[in-house]
Amino acid sequence: MNTRFKYPRTPHLPWSPGATSDDIRCVDTDIFIGKQVVVTEKMDGENTTIYNDHCHARSLDSRHHVSRDWVKRFQATIAHDIPEGWRICGENLFAQHSIVYDSLKSYFYGFSIWNEKNICLDWHETLHWFELLNIDTPPILYNGEWNEDQVKRLTFDTEKVEGYVVRLVDEFSYESFGRSVAKWVRKNHVQTDQHWMHAEIVANGLMDDNGGES
Predict the structure, then answer these.
(1) 18 with 25: CB under 8 angstroms?
(2) I need a surface site. Which of 18, 58, 80, 144 has the fewest CB within 10 A?
(3) Minimal CA–CA distance to 111: which of 93, 123, 96, 119?
């Protein structure tokens, strides 16, 4: 039985300016009409999956890299609370990529939890588990019934925000991921000349207990 899963590729929304010829796109947004959605900030980190006995980047056979040491230690602190066969997906934000963060709450931000049946938990249950595990989520930009015009009007500083992700509030299966999640990414979102994994690793900044930089 397969117990490891690669996080699926997220389709771009039709109006996402950051989509390239290699990316996949939503044909339209009818998949969201009449449904409750949550829109969260798309953070500029490394996609990471945590189990109760393992963690990996998007690639299931991801090799060791110093930027992954912190999240491996974090996995060890919560492993005993993760049910067998479950996994937590999120962003490893330890290393600076194109966007520099100076006041993160943590180096790991979660955005979904999958159970032993390979079902993504609904958003409310996800938040309940994140609270139990002391996992932060990306900032929520919109939460309610799908409103395409309102989502298109979302504004933010694209020098500091890579984009946003839309997901159904309801649970959904692994097979229906492409009909349940979509993203908007800024134009030319990769703004470095060298891939971050091959450059000197510079850590993002954490917020201390008083709300300042640590």
Answers:
(1) no
(2) 80
(3) 123
pLDDT of residue 214: 42
Residues facing residue 140 across a β-bridge: 40
Would the CA dihedral through 47, 50, 131, 179 be positive or negative? positive
Beta carbons of 29 and 148 less than 8 angstroms apart: yes
Write down the pTM of the prediction: 0.90
Determine the Cα–Cα distance for residues 82 and 27; give it in Å rounded to an integer.
Answer: 36
List strands edge to edge, sheet with 87-92: 55-57, 46-50, 87-92, 108-114, 119-120, 172-173
109 neighbors 45 (Cβ within 8 angstroms): yes
- Helix-then-strand count for the chain, H and E: 3, 10
Q: Is the pLDDT of residue 1 over 80?
A: no
CA-nearest of 94, 102, 32, 98 to 66 is 94
- Quick: pLDDT tens for 154-190: 999 999 999 999 999 999 999 999 999 999 999 875 5
